[in-house]
What does this fold into?
Amino acid sequence: MANVTENTESQRLTFWERIYLPEIARGLGLTFRQMFRPTFTRQYPEERWIPEGSYRGRPVLVLEEEGERCVACGLCSRVCPALAIEVRAGETEQEKERYPELFEINMLRCIYCGFCEEVCPEEAIVMSKDYELVFSSQEEGILGKDKLLVPVAQLQERLEFLRQWR
Amino acid sequence: MDLINLAIILVQAGILVNLMLMAAAYMVLAERKISAYIQLRLGPNRVGPWGLFQSFADVFKLYLKEDIVPAAADYKFHALAPVIAIGVAVTVYAVIPFSGPLVTIGGKSYGLAMAPNMNVALLVILAMTSVGVYGVALAGWSSNSKYSLMGGLRSSAQMISYELSMGLAVVGVVLIGGSLNLIELIQYQTAHGWNIFYQPLGFLIFLITALAETNRAPFDLPEAEPELVGGYHTEYSGMKFGLLYLAEYANILASSAIMATLFLGGWDIIPFVDEAALLGLDPTGLPMVLAGHVAFLSKAFVLVFVFIWIRWSLPRFRYDQLMNLGWKVLLPLSLANIAVTGIVMLLLN
Ligand code: SF4
Ligand code: SF4
It folds into this structure.
């Protein structure tokens, strides 16, 4: 008959293994020892995890003293697989000539892929360490420039990571 | 029956039911804590110090939950099933001798046991544990859902297979003690040493069948969640679910208490030692009885710990393995146990 295989498992067992009880006692001994080992649990709101520079959290815009680095080229918006970014360009007196009048990331769409960061010619958008994203409405999930701009000093670790590994 | 008697019985019943409810609440917590530590987690620790009030928060939540009855369910039986389950679970507590006589009022002494001297107490327990399955089977059948029905069916099949071995495992104890009265069995063990030393196989078979009887892992097929969602209580919610859950834990404590009575010497503190004579105390005096009560409860709760410990160590049996174990292993073993016990008893007398 097809599809009938012999159960060789039970033939491989020794007598003591076949009567189960000694093996069960061994298993119970193992779980008993486990009870006295230190636990792994992190007590979240009190103990927070601080990610490394390689962590891809909420994407943010780099803010320097003269203003944001972004030149509103729109590449990030173009590459974003989740269509989360909207950029509207405006003109400025500064050397870079263009700046984003409006820059919005819809955090309900973002999948934290990091493509925007990779494609940006100005290193103006980078992934931050922020993983605590809570919104009470859909509108609140769309972050504007006020929430996206982060001083460059706070992003040093990520920028160094990018220089080293990209 | 005069009024004082009635009042005392009501107080006794009140204490016992509350003991059961509190024990069940803390068994749930213990289960969660022990499972957490076995898996290197912390378990509930937010409600009260060390999570001590977690169970009460859970019960409070269950009270506030909407009670959903499936449209296709038979409403009356759906509501009746949890009542049967909890009712039967409570009934068993009436015959368990939690303590010896503590107080004497009007020439009669009372302890923490409703009917301690019943001459067929052991039979009542066996009968009640098998009626307990009615609640489960009815819950499964009346929900009109395939998962629930399968859970109920499995529970009945399991009960029939393991009830036999359980009854036969107890026969050895009855042969040795020569009585079905739990108090007399305890007195016999106090005088001659605990039954576990004479009936180790009987104890083992009883422990295994008790696991199956209370639907605990590794025999928790009636509620095997990977196959049957929630098993017989899939279609239950709110406090009806709470009652089924409570009945389950009440049964675990009852089984543990019965094992402590039958095999671990009941309220005897140290086996083969006459503690009362050693300390020069009256064995029926209050200190000794209280110490015995504490000893009994500790034995019962150690067994509860074993139940929980086994659950978080062993995987669930397959259905055919369950049946094989019940009919091909435990039944012949328990019969052999009776035969050997009988022959030895005959030769000794
Ligand atoms: S991380 Fe990916 S999904 Fe999120 S905004 Fe950047 S490109 Fe879009
Ligand atoms: S963030 Fe970078 S890629 Fe996006 S618009 Fe600005 S400069 Fe261009």
About this structure: Strands of chain B lie at 101-105, 108-111. Chain B touches chain A at residues 34, 36-42, 204, 309-310, 312-314 (CB under 8 Å).
